[in-house]
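Q: What structure does this chain adopt?
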Amino acid sequence: MSDVVGRIFLHGLESSGHGFKAKLLRSIFPAMLTPDFRGTLEERMEQLTPIMAERQSWIIVGSSFGGLMGALGAAAAAGGDARGHPQQVRKLVLLAPALTRPQFADAPPAPIAVPVVAYHGRGDTVIPLEPTRALAERVFSNLTFHVVDDNHMLRATVQSIDWHTLLRTA
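A:
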């Protein structure tokens, strides 16, 4: 297991590790992992577990369903679930996270202190803004939540973020 901080991008349900956001992040951070995940949420979390085991510390960027995966991965061990990795997550960046899905919303974890930065578009018609914000504020005790003039894809927002500062490891 490496003690160097890793960066990983978790894509959305209908996307891949080769989509627009993944390519943009790899152009800025060539060593950033952008794996492909397939299957149910549980199957995707099982695919994520061995990747997380490769390093002691991670910065996770999760988009939509990938945001749900990142939130579950960071929060689960705080509740005793062996699949969780809060001690490994240095920062969590959520892009229109699918937190309102039943796997998270129906049994939200106790508050966790992992630093979380979230971006959610006012024009998002896929993931509802206000329920997502309320849930995030309840679960993440160290949260910065940005509401932006964008849609679910957050294409303009993603291009305007200062990723070097946001994903800084030191």
